[in-house]
Amino acid sequence: MLDSLNEPGGPLKLAVPRGALMDEVLDLLDRVGIDTSGVRGDSRSLVFDGGEVTLVTMRPYDVPTYVEAGAADLGITGKDVLLEQDDRRIFELLDLDIGLCRMVLATRKGDAGPSEHQRRLGMMRIATKYPRIAERYFEGEGRQVEVVEVKGSIELAPLVGLADGIVDLVATGRTLVENNLEEREQIVTCTARLVGNEVAYRLRSEEVDSLTSRLRGAAG
Amino acid sequence: MIHPIPPGTRDVLPDEMRELRKLEESLLGVFEDFDYGEVRTPTIEYADVVGRGDEGSAGDAYRFFDDRGELLALRTDMTIPIARLVATRFGEVPPPWRLSYVANSYRAVTPQRARLREFGQAGVELIGVDGPDCVAEVVEIMARSLDAVGLGKSVIGLGDAGLWAALVRDLGGTEETVESSSRRLAAHDMVGLGAGLRECGEFEAGQVDALLKVVQMRGGPDLIASARGLGGKRFDGVLDLMEETCGAISARSVGERIQIDFGMLRELGYYTGSILEVYDPSVGEAIGGGGRYDGLMQRFGVEQPAAGFSLYLEPIHKAQLEQDRIRGRARDA
């Protein structure tokens, strides 16, 4: 199977996100008749035969890159990833209604709120893994901030004084509480989305539409 | 010694240069067969010429001041310079004008996205032929060009720049909704499009479903008949034009290359009427595009119908190499 991976034709290639979203995504794929046993098995492979589709596993953040280039025909990833990479030329086909998260602004518990901070200093420093979403949000609100991009545990930044607040994705909010942070504003809610490559969407329209409509049925 | 070049640009070495030259000559040969004369225009234009053509692409243009303080821009495509050239120099020559080009253009791109700032295009512009035959002639040349460079499996998508707006207006949408939904459609955000149409409160649930269904319709010419009645008068008018265009294309026996696509909306702002895009199964991005652009000619003061296309040389070369590789493997097997 690995031989024919970069040739046109053959089963559609579906990029599947590893990480927090993965279990819910695999359950959904099971419901539309895609064989996910290979991915679920403990294997270090990255590519799996799913029957009608070939499953390609990767970090959620990489899904738009592969789909835009046509290395994957379809992909599943969070809306947070799509918002952060909104200049990618990919088709957003379907809201899968799974993996619900919120993008929030949080600050240290007990601190004066962001508005008080803004009033006194006129400027906040915000740490985030999502610099574009953060910049767009504050710009849209007419608030001046300095966005600091960090890759690892964002919660650390306000605790040790790197930033006044963070913009991050939360599901339950428990990590925030554990780190003595408090949610102040909700920026946007995010769910998993089915995305497609523009050429596959046109040239393999029947297969793409069939899978999309079955996923719509299974998700709704 | 290492002397870097800017990201998004590249050197071409002799082996590849031979292949690229052959590709360009094949295309120019086809253009010549159809009696299109090749032109060359300056790489630099006045910035307001580029902006007059299309405000959107002017935003991506590299702009700079010359020694006299004039604001100049590197051209972002060849269609705008040719519209300028025709308006300025062909006033006395009776239309139609058939012109072709092979040239590099320049756009600012996001770094690290495998996109080129300097890219090659080969194409034709047909100015002064009215009716469906204008686009049909251009499509025929496009199909012959793709055959000439060995991309017989590529597909030409045919859409209409006014289709979506006509449909939304027919179903009672406001101009604001036409604008916001067009933006989402151009970005191919079907989820956001659906949410926006539901939230604006101008449509019943059944109408939203119909709108979303139409923009995801793509396939053979019979789609046009099946879409009748989904909108109203304006939408049917667009369908009539598409039907005529399809008929004229089939009459030139290249109808089997066409895929009708009701959801296509090209990013370039100057198209009015038919729009075209080319896809090949071996490349993940469009390898060419074009359409009808009467509006662009008007902006340069010429009241003439016009259509054209350009093929993107780098992805086409990539598709050729991919075909060679697949053929080679088939031989080995």
What's the short version?
The complex is a heterodimer of chains A (220) and B (333). Chain A is built from 10 helices and 11 strands. By secondary structure, chain A is an alpha/beta fold.
Protein model, in words:
The complex is a heterodimer of chains A (220) and B (333). Chain A is an alpha/beta fold. Chain A has two domains: 2-99 and 191-219, D-Maltodextrin-Binding Protein, domain 2 (3-Layer(aba) Sandwich), CATH 3.40.190; 101-190, 3-Layer(aba) Sandwich (D-Maltodextrin-Binding Protein, domain 2). Helix content of chain A is 34%, strand content 29%. In chain A, the strands form two sheets. In chain A, strands 2-3-1-4-11-5 form a six-stranded mixed beta sheet, sandwiched between helices. In chain A, helix 6 (131-140) links the parallel strand 7 (124-128) and strand 8. The longest helix of chain A has 15 residues, at 205-219. The model of chain A has no long low-confidence stretch (mean pLDDT 90). Chain B is α+β, with helices and mostly antiparallel strands and 333 residues long. Chain B has one domain (14-332): Bira Bifunctional Protein, Domain 2 (BirA Bifunctional Protein, domain 2, 2-Layer Sandwich). Chain B has helices at 14-33, 47-53, 55-59, 79-89, 132-148, 163-170, 175-186, 190-199, 205-215, 222-227, 233-251, 294-299, 313-332; strands spanning 37-38, 44-46, 63-65, 71-74, 97-106, 118-127, 155-160, 218-219, 258-261, 274-279, 288-292, 306-312. Chain B is 46% helix and 19% strand. In chain B, the strands form two sheets. A nine-stranded mixed beta sheet of chain B has the order 1-5-6-12-11-10-7-9-8, sandwiched between helices. In chain B, a hairpin with a 5-residue loop joins strand 3 (63-65) and strand 4. Chain B is globular and about 65 Å long. Chain B starts with 13 loop residues before the first helix and ends with a helix.
